[in-house]
Amino acid sequence: MLTGQVPAIEVENLSKDFGRFRAVDRISFTVRAGEIFGFLGPNGAGKSTTIRMLTGLLLPSGGSGRVAGLDIVRENYLIQHHIGYMSQRFSLYEDLTAEENLTFFGGVYGLRGSHLKERIDAVLILVDLAGRRQELTRNLSLGLRQRLALASAVLHEPAILFLDEPTSGVDPISRRTFWDLIYGLAERGVTVLVTTHYLDEAEFCDQLVLIHQGRLVAQGTPRDLKRLVTQEIIAVYPERLGEALEILHNFPEIGEASVFGDGLHVTTTQAGQGEDAIKAVLAANQIGIRSLSLVPATLEDAFIFLTRQAGTNKQ
Fold first, then answer.
1. pLDDT in tens, 165-211
2. How confident is the model at residue 315, as a pLDDT?
């Protein structure tokens, strides 16, 4: 595992162009060893492209980066020996058993003989699949295949683990179980960089980068990002949610309105007067309010606020 003061990942002004389209636009960040580092952003924001550059699968168009001390351009072919990579599609062979998949990937990583067998036994126990080792992968549930993909990614005991949208499409219980495994790996000193668009998962990260349209919008702990919201957040629980949302969207004094559970989170352009303004406009449209109050900003509020702000500044 990586130790000392040397960062696990260093990125400076990293860019990637596909023709005239810039998928990643001069992003810079540093990941400390043993950290769970989250890349948060919507689909198409540039998260997967960044991971592919950091894992040596894609050369950057500009900027620089180092992973485990290795240059991602000049030494990209060496990076795979120090990292584990779990893609969105899991990269498993469905016509092989769980154990056969691990044997194949172990061979790719250069593991042989008794050492390979020991590692297969260890990772199957780690992901609680020891009793399913002879089962065809196609017969495993999506959540179990997810855990098998993680087992294949850590088979060779990498110092850094890249997870690209690892829980996409997985049920909430499997997602929670998966994150328990991630915490366990981080406690052992593994550095984890994970991309996600699930805001509840982002809360589990030590540090977050918010990326939007290829640009780094904000960076910090989940608490840091919430503190960047400078507008008041008002939680509104109206009688007719959809109608209330449409009305508030078209009301000049409303900065932003979004669905939050069975209510709305609303910001206004009138500091200190937002609650009265919302009550007045909904009352004028005969929409009752079950409750209304000021609330602290959530990570979802921060995500909406910061991406909107970035879009305004870009114009």
1. 888 778 888 888 899 999 999 999 999 999 988 888 889 899 999 99
2. 47
pLDDT at 58: 94
**The domains spanning 9-220 and 230-296 adopt the same CATH topology:** no
The yes/no answer on whether domain 9-220 falls in CATH 3.30.450.40 is no
pTM comes to 0.87
In the chain, what are the domain boundaries? 9-220, 230-296
C-alpha distance from residue 252 to each of 86, 255, 257, 269, 315 (Å): 46, 8, 12, 8, 21
Classify domain 230-296 at the CATH class level. alpha beta
Q: Which residue reads 């779990």 in tokens? A: 86
pLDDT tens per residue across span 21-45: 999 999 999 999 999 999 988 888 8
CA 295 – CA 39 distance, rounded (Å): 26
- C-alpha span between 202 and 37 (Å, rounded): 9
Sequence letter at residue 129? L
145-170 as b/e: b if 16+ CB within 10 A? bbbbbbbbbbbbebbbbbbbbbbbeb
